[in-house]
Amino acid sequence: MLKVEHIGIAVKSLAVSVPLFEKLLNAECYKTEEIASEGVSTAFFRQGETKIELLEALSPASPVAKFLEKKGEGVHHLAFEVKDIRAEMARLQNEGFELLSAEPKPGADNKLVCFLHPKSTNGVLVELTQERTG
Asked: Is the pTM of this model over 0.90?
């Protein structure tokens, strides 16, 4: 793992949360994006080399909606940048971590992503990210 790529924060409303985080971070949201396959709308902020990703559920069936219902707004996941996502997925699976998908999926911000099940990471949802090429 190369670095913390971003911290994902589940929010009820991007319309409310984007202005709040713009004030908090003294930085403008540089990108919003809808990821239909994950059932979320996202908004990104950059602080130094780390990004903050706000996540709003698009439907009650979305994993983020379920998270909000169970835990409320707050830190949802930690994302780590990796050089080779498939190699890192294989390494972690061999180490006993449970992957939530067998193959990387397209994610926000031009990334390939894979999540690790929180039950195998002390309750923390971990995301692996690799820049998509081409």
From this structure: yes
